[in-house]
Amino acid sequence: MGTGNELVDVLVVGGGAAGLGAALTLARARRSVVVVDAGQPRNAPAEGVHGLLGLEGTNPLELLARGRDEVRGYGGTILEGEVVRADTDPLGFMVELADGRQLRARQLLVATGLSDQLPDLPGVRERWGHDVLHCPYCHGWEVRDRRIGVIATGPMSVHQTLLFRQWSDNLRLFSRGVEISDEDRNRFRARGVEVVEGEVEGLEVAEDSLQAVRMADGRRFEVDAAVVASRMVANLGPFAALGLKTVEHAMGSFIEADELGCTSVAGVWVAGNATDLSAQVGAAAAQGTRVAAQINFHLVNEETELAVAAL
Questions:
Q1: Which CATH architecture has domain 7-116+231-309?
Q2: Where does the sequence pass through the membrane (predicted)?
Q3: CA atoms of 128 and 137, how far apart (whole Å)
């Protein structure tokens, strides 16, 4: 398949689990499909993907490499590049890449994932995905029975604290001024979770590992892992001209779509974290596969109607 100005059936923007899962299904359905990927997967800092049946612990970059090879094996095309603009086209959609290339497709699948907005504290961004964590189902086993500090960023931090208590009884919540109800404080007392009041100054890191949470008043609490609830925001910049609807949520913002991945813009579909903020790799890949089947079904109906009209 070429990558010039010819029209392809489906253009997938984003080569993570959702995008590659969709592309694999579409390629196997004998669709011409191109995946454009900027090469910046959200889970790149992690050592392994967890909770993925049959592939538990696989390095995330290795998993994506396998996926790209599988898509190519069925005739799909993988392009490295950054999409900077997407718009409608007389025959469907056009996207422009940062290097000036333009691609056209009948259908467009947005699988660009999300960005994590983290608190501006020294050490948090640097250790993100290593020993600064967010998801107990992704990382809880790896820090079981260790010293864990939850750094509050908002109401979701209470939820995080109660979840991570499942993996360790050595747990502190650093409130950072976030309001905690009396009911939640009672829950924490019942579960042996200490609430530390006051402002967090930053994280102490030595020899490539987290050592402690440092308070603005000089107190220091040794921890082996820190937990932070990021604000998760769907990566929508290049798609502004399409007018996609978004939904604001306590956890962040995402693209509005129905259960089949169909957005408010005809011909534009979405899968993965761009529409489901909590989807892990397995769920994102499965969602990409499901949405791809709907895209193919839509194209089959379109082609059938044209064939009938030509009789």
A1: 3-Layer(bba) Sandwich (3.50)
A2: none
A3: 16
Whole-number Å distance between alpha carbons of 94 and 108: 9
Q: Could you check whether 7-116+231-309 and 119-228 share the same CATH topology? A: yes
Domain spans of the chain?
A: 7-116+231-309, 119-228
From the CB of residue 154, how many other CB atoms can be counted at a distance below 10 Å? 14
Q: Checking DSSP bridges between strand 246-249 and strand 252-255, what pairing results, if any? A: antiparallel
Fold of 119-228: FAD/NAD(P)-binding domain (3.50.50)
Beta carbons of 44 and 61 less than 8 angstroms apart: yes
pLDDT values of the chain reduced to their tens digit, one per residue, 311 residues: 445 568 999 999 999 999 999 999 999 999 999 999 999 888 888 889 999 999 999 999 999 999 999 999 999 999 999 999 999 999 999 999 999 999 999 999 999 999 999 999 999 999 999 999 999 999 999 999 999 999 999 988 999 999 999 999 999 999 999 999 999 999 999 999 999 999 999 999 999 999 999 999 999 999 999 999 999 999 999 999 999 999 998 889 999 999 999 999 999 999 999 999 999 999 999 999 999 999 999 999 999 999 999 99
Whether the predicted model's global pTM rises above the 0.85 cut: yes
Integer angstrom CA distances of residue 281 from 63, 66, 131, 167, 204: 10, 14, 19, 21, 30
* Residue whose C-alpha is closest to residue 211's, from 197, 225, 228, 201: 225
